[in-house]
Amino acid sequence: MNFNSLVLLSAEATVDKPDGFLGALATGAEEFIKIFNEGGKVFLSLMGGILPTLIVLLTAVNALVRLIGPEKIENLGKAAARPGLRWYPVRYMLLPFVSVFVLTNPMAYTMGRFLPERFKPAFYDSAVSFVHPILGIFPHANPGELFVYVGIATGITQLGYGLGDLAVRYLLVGLVVIFIRGILTEVITARMMKKGA
User: Fold this and answer.
1) Residues 8-19: tens digit of each pLDDT
2) Any idea which of 102-106, 116-120, 158-162 has the lowest mean pLDDT?
């Protein structure tokens, strides 16, 4: 028998799938690798979709920070620490928005360092609550959790609605929610500090 006839014989030969424990193990291994194959397909789709956009957006935001100057952004944090009701929107809407937009998640929470201790929990609550509502318009702010917005957006597009309206509403509702959360958390923090908790 020569080599060519061995190749033909092996091409025609089939191997029965194992059964029992070994069959279950083989099937489990096949299913296990299918998960990673699907993950690879998703990764490739992202490489041609959202990832280049995020990289360009991050580059643009970093350029914007350098143009504005990091010290001016830090001055906003110091201004938000001022006492009085008129500084609530600055402290619990503008500062979290700028922090999440410029510094992105999780670095955005560091802007709280410019606030007195009594405002830090409320700022954190506002900032952490805003990392999802900003995604519709500015996906660079929290790309690791973009799937939340994409899941909602998929349902909206299947209903035949546009995403622009959703993104704007998502952002505006988010600003109202973080403002309310900031004020409530500040009140709760003040009460707890008085009790010495």
Assistant:
1) 555 555 656 767
2) 102-106
* Cβ 145 vs Cβ 159: under 8 Å: no
- With 0-12 / 13-18 / 19 or more C-beta atoms within 10 angstroms meaning exposed / middle / buried, residue 58 is middle
For 6, half-sphere exposure in the C-beta direction (CA atoms, 13 angstrom radius) is 3
Which of these, 180, 168, 166, lies nearest to 93 by C-alpha position?
180
Q: What's the rounded Cα separation, in Å, for the pair 63 and 94?
A: 20
The pLDDT of residue 3 is: 57
Q: How far apart are CA 11 and CA 6, in angstroms?
A: 8
The structure's pTM equals 0.63
Distances (CA, A) of 136 to 18, 29, 139, 148, 163: 50, 38, 6, 10, 8
Cis peptide before 89 (omega within 30 of 0): no
- Angle between helical axes of 20-47 and 50-68 (0-180°, round to 10): 50
